[in-house]
């Protein structure tokens, strides 16, 4: 994967030499193909995050059993790590990633994600990284799964395996954004299954997606992984949505 990443990065430099992956302004080459101005504009949340759902919390908030937003909700994952809040430039970047031309942008922002959260991810000690899959029809329409690109980059950064085929979406569900908060859990119920060849027994899984809102999708994906033998499922997302 390192060779493929280097090859793609070189190809992009032929097409867009020395430009930021977000604003296309002149960019001084480093490991993250995002200029300093865009990094500043992303304005990652300075507030602490609930370790259970990723929502912003005050410094002295009581998060035993979760914060006020998630306390009492049953999740099948243990923790959430996120880069920022789903607003401003980060929201714009994530929406652009969902288009067929967004794969390179997904790789750039996930490199920044890995750099920003390196210490946190190291402390989680995952055995393998697994992306939240799209249903095959949506993937065919989009051309790629942005969560795959995020997962590959994070796995490469941590030097652990990435397994994009261990989890599959077995049911095409209506968009979560069209559901009520409570309806989102029912909408994705039994939508995921682990593949028979997935070596999940006793594994610590880092489950990767782009945005977490209620946690319903990641929780249902985590449930499928746990049912197949995973010991622990931890979630990593680019952004936590407040809506």
Summarize the topology:
Blueprint: H1 2-15, H2 36-42, E1 48-49, E2 56-57, E3 79-85, H3 88-97, H4 103-116, H5 118-124, E4 128-131, H6 136-142, H7 146-158, E5 167-169, H8 181-187, E6 192-194, E7 204-212, H9 216-227, E8 232-240
Helix pairs in contact: 3-4, 4-7
Describe this protein's structure:
By secondary structure, the protein is an alpha/beta fold. The chain has one domain: Rossmann fold (3-Layer(aba) Sandwich). Helices cover 37% and strands 16% of the residues. The strands form three sheets. The chain has a four-stranded parallel sheet with strand order 3-8-7-4, with helices on both faces. A two-stranded antiparallel ribbon has the order 1-2. A hairpin with a 6-residue loop joins β1 (48-49) and β2. The termini are far apart.
> Could you report the average pLDDT, rounded to the nearest whole number?
86
| SSE string | HHEEEHHHEHHEHEEHE
**How many DSSP-defined strands?**
8
Give the amount of beta strand, in percent.
15-25%
Distance between the termini: 36 Å
| SS class | alpha/beta
Q: Provide the low-confidence segments as ranges.
A: none
Percentage of residues in helical conformation: 25-40%
Sheet with the most strands: spatial strand order: 3-8-7-4
Instruction: Report on the biggest sheet.
Output: 4 strands, parallel
Number of helices: 9
In the CATH scheme, the class would be Alpha Beta
Radius of gyration: 17 Å
Q: Globular, elongated, flat, extended or rod-shaped: what is the shape?
A: globular
